[in-house]
Amino acid sequence: MANVAVLNMKGDQVDTIELNDAIFGIEANEHVMHLAVVQYLANQRQGTQSTKTRAEVRGGGRKPWRQKGTGRARQGSIRSPQWVGGGVVFAPKPRDYSFKLNKKVKRLALQSALSVKAAEGKIIVMDNLTLAEVKTKEMANVLENIKCGKALIVMDGTNNNVMLSARNIPEVKTASVNTINVYDLLKYNTLVVTKDAVAKIEEVYA
Q1: Given pLDDT bands bounded at 50, 70 and 90, which one contains residue 1?
Q2: DSSP string, 11-74
Q3: CA distance 155 to 198
Q4: Which domains does the chain have, with CATH numbers?
Q5: What is the mean pLDDT of residues 106-132?
Q6: Taking all residues of the chain, what is their mean pLDDT, rounded to a whole number?
Q7: Residue-wise pLDDT tens digits, 70-116
Q8: Kind of pairing, strands 151-155 and 172-176?
Q9: How many percent of the chain have pLDDT more than 70?
Q10: Cα–Cα distance between 26 and 111 in angstroms, integer?
């Protein structure tokens, strides 16, 4: 098991913790991580884009000129795709882009992403992370003390003061154990996680 230093909010080491190899020490599977990222991005799509086909564009019911004898190309409607203001060929319509992954695949992808962070030494464990009030400056000071910039902060529960204090800091995102995903783990350089959250991750995703 890998040993990771446990820091306090001042950035001082106060303890060490052993990470479970079944979650933080497996061989990363790039394929399932790719699937998890594609699924996450696909599920974020609204799928509300819509364009009118030639059947839906207003007008164009009358043939613009007779079939023969004018010297011009034959036309059946002024709403054909080649006309300005005409319909769109293969027009996009509202659709659902989301798809599902098996639970075992999602778990393996999450374990792989956590193992990548552990192997790169980009996991910072904190003994506690609480703020008495909503104060962005205090949260910024904590991040400066532990020397991390673009970070994903994971906590064991909902800490509104920490979440509200961190939301205005660029390239910092907060999440609870139940809402972490592979996309965020790979997007942010550093994973900042509380000691209690580590225990909960090992319990939920083992």
Answers
A1: low
A2: S-EEEEEEEPHHHHSSPP-HHHHHHHHHHHHHHH---------TTTSS---S-SS-SSSSSSPP
A3: 9
A4: 2-45+97-204 (3.40.1370.10), 47-96 (no CATH)
A5: 91
A6: 90
A7: 999 999 999 999 999 999 999 899 999 999 999 999 999 999 999 99
A8: parallel
A9: 99
A10: 7
Neighbours of 14 (CB within 10 A): 13
Q: How far apart, in whole angstroms, are the C-alpha atoms of residue 80 and residue 57?
A: 9
Q: Is the dihedral of CA 32, 37, 40, 43 positive or negative?
A: negative
Question: Which token pair is 28?
Answer: 């990363």
Chain centroid to CA 116? 17
Contact 134, 165 (CB under 8 A): yes
Residue 150: strand, helix, or coil = coil
